[in-house]
Structure to design on (270 residues):
């Protein structure tokens, strides 16, 4: 199969993304071979787009299988990987001709993440001492850079910062981490309650179900006057202070989740 035919086949496959399965992983090596043998920067960028989106759909299938097997933390880590890949594609939208299932995947990532019980994460802070461009290896700093922009495509290569030297300052506990995989566990193992995820998996039965999750605050208790406004809120929904969370409300609230499941995508086409 020549390069033009391969790209046409991938375009057709990704336009009908709901049919993508593990058998399509074979295309990734073919795309890498084509990328290595062409000097056309436009073609190289197209190959990166097709390859990345195919990886996204294959990763989503893997995530759903992990969820079904109740491997919840590994699935959480891969949801973050999928989230990053999709953000990389969105950042290079000028090279992407169609949606190719991006909206479906983004919705799936957001919806599954909302059902997780993780509220606190570990996070590090560093001083970056030496950094360079992944494309041309030029030094990067506040005062020095090159023509390449982080997060953009250049002849099929994704530009990133390469940190060569840094100094660790602190480790903190945060609610909105840079790295979502940094979930703290007790020494005796996984202690989290995954009942919301299990409930979701009762109604979302295939990887191609299109579903959405919404969250409502439901009043559950009166204010007692015992808790200090500067202490963590007794609702325990987050790390927010009482005065910044439930205190301004008429009652203390807990989160209530609504899962709306639409017709599977495969049944809605053709």
């Amino acid at each position: 199969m020549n390069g033009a035919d391969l790209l046409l086949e991938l375009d057709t496959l990704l336009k009908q993304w709901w049919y993508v399965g593990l058998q399509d992983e074979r295309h990734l090596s073919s795309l890498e071979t084509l990328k290595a043998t062409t000097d056309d920067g436009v073609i190289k960028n197209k190959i990166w787009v097709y390859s990345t989106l195919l990886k996204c759909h294959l990763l989503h299938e893997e995530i759903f299988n992990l969820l079904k097997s109740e491997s919840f933390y590994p699935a959480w880590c891969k949801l973050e990987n999928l989230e990053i890949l999709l953000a990389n594609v969105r950042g290079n939208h000028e090279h992407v001709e169609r949606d190719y299932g991006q909206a479906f995947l983004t919705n799936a990532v957001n919806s599954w993440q909302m059902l997780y019980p993780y509220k606190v994460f570990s996070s590090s802070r560093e001083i970056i001492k030496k950094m360079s461009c992944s494309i041309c290896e030029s030094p990067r700093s506040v005062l020095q850079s090159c023509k390449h922009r982080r997060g953009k495509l250049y002849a099929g290569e994704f530009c990133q910062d390469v940190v060569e030297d840094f100094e660790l300052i602190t480790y903190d506990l945060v609610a909105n981490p840079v790295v979502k995989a940094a979930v703290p566990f007790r020494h005796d193992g996984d202690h989290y309650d995954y009942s919301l995820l299990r409930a979701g998996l009762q109604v979302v039965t295939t990887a191609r179900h299109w579903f959405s999750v919404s969250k409502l605050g439901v009043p559950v208790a009166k204010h007692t006057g015992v808790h200090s406004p500067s202490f963590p809120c007794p609702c325990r929904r987050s790390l927010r202070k009482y005065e910044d969370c439930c205190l301004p409300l008429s009652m203390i609230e807990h989160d209530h989740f609504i899962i709306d499941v639409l017709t599977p995508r495969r049944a809605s086409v053709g």
Q: What stands out?
A: The two ends are 28 Å apart (CA to CA). The beta strands are 121-133, 139-140, 153-154, 157-158, 161-174, 211-221, 252-261. Confidence is low (pLDDT under 50) at residues 264-270.
